[in-house]
Amino acid sequence: MSAAPLPPFNREAKAKLTENPNPTFEYGQKVEATEDGERWLEGEKAGWTVIDTSKEEARKIYTLMISGIVPRPIAFVSSLSEDGTANLAPFSWFNQVTHSPPLISVSISQPTSGPKDTAHNIKTTKQFTVNIISEPFIENANITSLDSPANVSEWEISGLTKEPSIHVKAPRVKESAFSMECELFQAVDITHPDTGKQTGTLILGLVKYIHLRNDVLNERGTVDFAKLKPIGRLGDISYARVGDAFRLPRPEWAVEGEKIKEFLKTTQ
Protein backbone atom coordinates (compact mmCIF):
# COMPACT_ATOMS: atom_id res chain seq x y z
CA MET A 1 0.00 0.00 0.00
CA SER A 2 1.58 3.26 -1.13
CA ALA A 3 1.73 6.28 1.15
CA ALA A 4 -0.54 9.22 0.49
CA PRO A 5 1.17 11.94 -1.58
CA LEU A 6 2.63 14.79 0.41
CA PRO A 7 1.74 18.44 -0.24
CA PRO A 8 4.46 20.47 -2.00
CA PHE A 9 7.06 22.36 0.01
CA ASN A 10 5.60 25.69 1.10
CA ARG A 11 7.98 28.26 -0.38
CA GLU A 12 5.74 31.13 0.68
CA ALA A 13 6.01 30.37 4.42
CA LYS A 14 7.77 33.16 6.31
CA ALA A 15 9.29 32.63 9.74
CA LYS A 16 8.19 35.34 12.16
CA LEU A 17 8.24 36.29 15.81
CA THR A 18 5.05 35.83 17.83
CA GLU A 19 3.92 36.29 21.40
CA ASN A 20 5.14 33.57 23.78
CA PRO A 21 2.71 30.70 24.58
CA ASN A 22 1.73 31.94 28.06
CA PRO A 23 2.29 35.71 28.29
CA THR A 24 0.37 35.93 31.60
CA PHE A 25 2.62 33.45 33.43
CA GLU A 26 3.10 34.16 37.13
CA TYR A 27 5.51 32.67 39.68
CA GLY A 28 4.42 29.21 40.79
CA GLN A 29 1.69 28.95 38.18
CA LYS A 30 0.84 25.32 37.44
CA VAL A 31 1.03 24.01 33.89
CA GLU A 32 -2.67 23.07 33.97
CA ALA A 33 -3.60 26.73 34.56
CA THR A 34 -3.78 27.26 30.79
CA GLU A 35 -5.90 25.39 28.26
CA ASP A 36 -2.81 24.28 26.36
CA GLY A 37 -1.19 23.07 29.56
CA GLU A 38 -4.29 21.19 30.64
CA ARG A 39 -4.52 19.43 27.29
CA TRP A 40 -0.82 18.59 27.48
CA LEU A 41 -1.15 16.97 30.89
CA GLU A 42 -4.18 14.99 29.72
CA GLY A 43 -1.78 13.01 27.56
CA GLU A 44 -0.22 11.43 30.64
CA LYS A 45 -3.35 9.30 31.05
CA ALA A 46 -2.07 7.16 28.17
CA GLY A 47 0.70 5.99 30.49
CA TRP A 48 4.46 5.76 30.13
CA THR A 49 6.95 3.56 28.31
CA VAL A 50 10.20 3.15 30.24
CA ILE A 51 13.31 1.85 28.47
CA ASP A 52 16.17 0.15 30.29
CA THR A 53 19.02 0.96 27.92
CA SER A 54 21.15 -1.88 29.28
CA LYS A 55 18.56 -4.38 28.03
CA GLU A 56 17.57 -2.77 24.73
CA GLU A 57 19.11 -3.23 21.30
CA ALA A 58 21.39 -0.40 20.18
CA ARG A 59 19.31 0.24 17.06
CA LYS A 60 16.16 0.73 19.13
CA ILE A 61 17.95 3.16 21.45
CA TYR A 62 19.22 5.06 18.42
CA THR A 63 15.76 5.48 16.89
CA LEU A 64 14.26 6.57 20.21
CA MET A 65 16.98 9.12 20.97
CA ILE A 66 17.04 10.75 17.54
CA SER A 67 13.24 11.02 17.58
CA GLY A 68 13.12 12.53 21.07
CA ILE A 69 16.17 14.82 21.04
CA VAL A 70 14.79 17.27 18.51
CA PRO A 71 15.27 19.47 16.64
CA ARG A 72 19.00 19.03 16.24
CA PRO A 73 21.27 21.48 14.40
CA ILE A 74 23.33 19.95 11.61
CA ALA A 75 27.08 20.30 11.17
CA PHE A 76 27.92 20.08 7.48
CA VAL A 77 31.58 19.13 7.87
CA SER A 78 34.25 19.62 5.23
CA SER A 79 37.60 17.91 5.82
CA LEU A 80 40.71 16.77 3.97
CA SER A 81 42.67 13.53 4.23
CA GLU A 82 46.45 13.45 4.56
CA ASP A 83 46.79 13.23 0.76
CA GLY A 84 44.38 16.13 0.19
CA THR A 85 41.26 14.13 -0.69
CA ALA A 86 38.20 16.25 0.12
CA ASN A 87 35.32 14.87 2.19
CA LEU A 88 31.92 16.40 2.90
CA ALA A 89 29.30 14.97 5.27
CA PRO A 90 26.41 16.08 7.55
CA PHE A 91 26.26 15.26 11.28
CA SER A 92 23.32 16.11 13.52
CA TRP A 93 25.02 15.36 16.84
CA PHE A 94 26.42 18.87 16.91
CA ASN A 95 26.29 21.98 19.08
CA GLN A 96 28.10 24.95 20.59
CA VAL A 97 30.15 24.15 23.71
CA THR A 98 31.54 27.51 24.88
CA HIS A 99 32.03 30.97 23.42
CA SER A 100 35.29 31.72 25.27
CA PRO A 101 37.15 29.97 23.85
CA PRO A 102 34.78 29.47 20.91
CA LEU A 103 34.28 25.70 20.87
CA ILE A 104 31.84 23.49 18.98
CA SER A 105 31.22 19.76 19.30
CA VAL A 106 30.53 17.16 16.63
CA SER A 107 29.88 13.54 17.58
CA ILE A 108 30.70 10.99 14.88
CA SER A 109 29.55 7.39 15.25
CA GLN A 110 31.90 4.59 14.30
CA PRO A 111 30.58 1.62 12.31
CA THR A 112 32.00 -1.87 12.75
CA SER A 113 34.06 -1.33 9.59
CA GLY A 114 36.14 1.36 11.28
CA PRO A 115 36.29 5.16 11.67
CA LYS A 116 34.37 7.34 9.24
CA ASP A 117 36.43 9.46 6.87
CA THR A 118 35.47 12.68 8.68
CA ALA A 119 36.68 11.45 12.07
CA HIS A 120 39.90 10.06 10.58
CA ASN A 121 40.59 13.25 8.62
CA ILE A 122 40.04 15.57 11.58
CA LYS A 123 42.22 13.49 13.89
CA THR A 124 45.08 13.35 11.40
CA THR A 125 45.01 16.85 9.86
CA LYS A 126 43.63 18.69 12.94
CA GLN A 127 41.47 20.92 10.72
CA PHE A 128 37.93 21.11 9.33
CA THR A 129 35.09 23.49 8.56
CA VAL A 130 31.48 23.41 9.74
CA ASN A 131 28.84 24.87 7.45
CA ILE A 132 25.20 25.53 8.33
CA ILE A 133 22.65 24.06 5.91
CA SER A 134 19.83 26.28 4.63
CA GLU A 135 16.57 25.32 2.92
CA PRO A 136 17.62 26.04 -0.70
CA PHE A 137 20.39 23.40 -0.68
CA ILE A 138 19.17 20.71 1.73
CA GLU A 139 18.93 18.11 -1.05
CA ASN A 140 22.48 18.92 -2.13
CA ALA A 141 23.65 18.42 1.45
CA ASN A 142 21.60 15.29 2.10
CA ILE A 143 23.12 13.46 -0.88
CA THR A 144 26.55 13.65 0.80
CA SER A 145 25.33 11.21 3.47
CA LEU A 146 25.45 8.50 0.78
CA ASP A 147 27.45 5.42 1.81
CA SER A 148 29.55 5.72 -1.32
CA PRO A 149 32.89 4.04 -2.09
CA ALA A 150 36.04 5.94 -1.21
CA ASN A 151 36.65 6.95 -4.83
CA VAL A 152 33.30 8.79 -5.13
CA SER A 153 33.51 12.52 -4.36
CA GLU A 154 30.69 13.90 -2.23
CA TRP A 155 31.50 17.35 -3.54
CA GLU A 156 30.96 16.33 -7.16
CA ILE A 157 27.62 14.60 -6.64
CA SER A 158 26.33 17.37 -4.36
CA GLY A 159 26.78 20.14 -6.91
CA LEU A 160 28.08 22.37 -4.11
CA THR A 161 31.04 24.72 -4.45
CA LYS A 162 34.37 24.62 -2.63
CA GLU A 163 35.37 28.00 -1.22
CA PRO A 164 38.94 28.47 0.05
CA SER A 165 39.28 29.01 3.79
CA ILE A 166 41.58 31.55 5.41
CA HIS A 167 43.16 29.55 8.24
CA VAL A 168 42.54 25.86 7.49
CA LYS A 169 43.14 23.83 4.34
CA ALA A 170 39.67 22.27 4.28
CA PRO A 171 37.35 24.32 2.03
CA ARG A 172 34.12 25.95 3.11
CA VAL A 173 30.80 25.34 1.37
CA LYS A 174 30.28 28.52 -0.65
CA GLU A 175 26.50 28.13 -0.64
CA SER A 176 26.41 28.18 3.18
CA ALA A 177 25.68 31.60 4.67
CA PHE A 178 27.30 30.71 8.01
CA SER A 179 30.57 28.78 8.11
CA MET A 180 33.26 28.18 10.73
CA GLU A 181 36.90 27.31 10.23
CA CYS A 182 37.98 24.99 13.03
CA GLU A 183 41.10 23.45 14.52
CA LEU A 184 40.91 20.21 16.48
CA PHE A 185 40.83 21.10 20.18
CA GLN A 186 40.26 17.58 21.49
CA ALA A 187 39.11 14.21 20.18
CA VAL A 188 37.47 11.90 22.69
CA ASP A 189 37.06 8.29 21.57
CA ILE A 190 33.87 6.75 22.98
CA THR A 191 34.05 3.10 24.03
CA HIS A 192 31.09 0.97 25.09
CA PRO A 193 31.28 0.29 28.86
CA ASP A 194 30.26 -3.36 28.39
CA THR A 195 32.15 -4.43 25.26
CA GLY A 196 35.08 -2.02 25.31
CA LYS A 197 34.60 -1.46 21.59
CA GLN A 198 34.91 2.05 20.18
CA THR A 199 31.51 3.28 19.00
CA GLY A 200 32.27 6.88 18.14
CA THR A 201 34.40 9.98 18.53
CA LEU A 202 33.46 13.29 20.11
CA ILE A 203 35.24 16.10 18.28
CA LEU A 204 35.76 19.45 20.01
CA GLY A 205 36.65 22.13 17.50
CA LEU A 206 38.22 25.50 18.23
CA VAL A 207 36.58 28.06 15.94
CA LYS A 208 39.25 30.26 14.35
CA TYR A 209 37.20 32.15 11.76
CA ILE A 210 33.47 32.67 11.21
CA HIS A 211 32.16 33.58 7.76
CA LEU A 212 28.76 35.29 7.65
CA ARG A 213 26.93 36.34 4.52
CA ASN A 214 25.81 39.95 4.94
CA ASP A 215 22.29 39.35 3.68
CA VAL A 216 21.44 37.08 6.65
CA LEU A 217 22.48 39.62 9.29
CA ASN A 218 20.12 41.88 11.21
CA GLU A 219 20.68 45.48 12.24
CA ARG A 220 22.59 44.32 15.36
CA GLY A 221 25.10 42.39 13.27
CA THR A 222 23.89 38.96 14.38
CA VAL A 223 22.21 36.25 12.32
CA ASP A 224 18.50 36.60 11.51
CA PHE A 225 17.11 33.06 11.65
CA ALA A 226 14.34 33.95 9.19
CA LYS A 227 16.95 34.99 6.62
CA LEU A 228 19.33 32.10 7.30
CA LYS A 229 16.54 29.52 6.81
CA PRO A 230 18.44 26.83 8.75
CA ILE A 231 17.49 23.17 8.53
CA GLY A 232 17.31 20.93 11.61
CA ARG A 233 17.15 17.18 12.05
CA LEU A 234 14.27 15.17 13.49
CA GLY A 235 13.77 11.42 13.86
CA ASP A 236 14.03 8.80 11.08
CA ILE A 237 14.59 10.61 7.74
CA SER A 238 12.73 13.79 8.71
CA TYR A 239 14.09 17.31 8.62
CA ALA A 240 12.63 20.53 10.04
CA ARG A 241 12.60 24.15 9.01
CA VAL A 242 12.35 27.11 11.39
CA GLY A 243 8.78 28.33 11.72
CA ASP A 244 7.41 30.91 14.12
CA ALA A 245 9.59 31.86 17.09
CA PHE A 246 9.03 33.84 20.26
CA ARG A 247 11.29 35.89 22.51
CA LEU A 248 11.34 35.06 26.23
CA PRO A 249 13.82 37.01 28.37
CA ARG A 250 15.61 35.21 31.18
CA PRO A 251 14.56 36.57 34.59
CA GLU A 252 17.12 38.53 36.61
CA TRP A 253 17.15 38.42 40.40
CA ALA A 254 18.05 42.11 40.60
CA VAL A 255 14.75 42.88 38.88
CA GLU A 256 12.49 40.04 40.03
CA GLY A 257 13.96 39.16 43.44
CA GLU A 258 11.49 41.09 45.61
CA LYS A 259 8.50 39.75 43.69
CA ILE A 260 9.79 36.21 44.10
CA LYS A 261 10.32 36.70 47.85
CA GLU A 262 6.75 37.92 48.21
CA PHE A 263 5.46 34.94 46.28
CA LEU A 264 7.45 32.48 48.39
CA LYS A 265 5.90 33.94 51.55
CA THR A 266 2.48 32.88 50.27
CA THR A 267 3.64 29.27 49.91
CA GLN A 268 4.81 28.90 53.52
UniProtKB/TrEMBL annotation:
Its cofactor is FMN. The keyword Flavoprotein applies. Residues 1-25 are annotated as: Disordered. The keyword Flavoprotein applies. Coiled coil: none annotated. Residues 67-226 form the Flavin reductase like domain. It comes from the Eukaryota. Keywords: Flavoprotein, FMN. GO terms for molecular function: FMN binding. It holds the Pfam family Flavin_Reduct. Belongs to the flavoredoxin family. This is Flavin reductase like domain-containing protein.
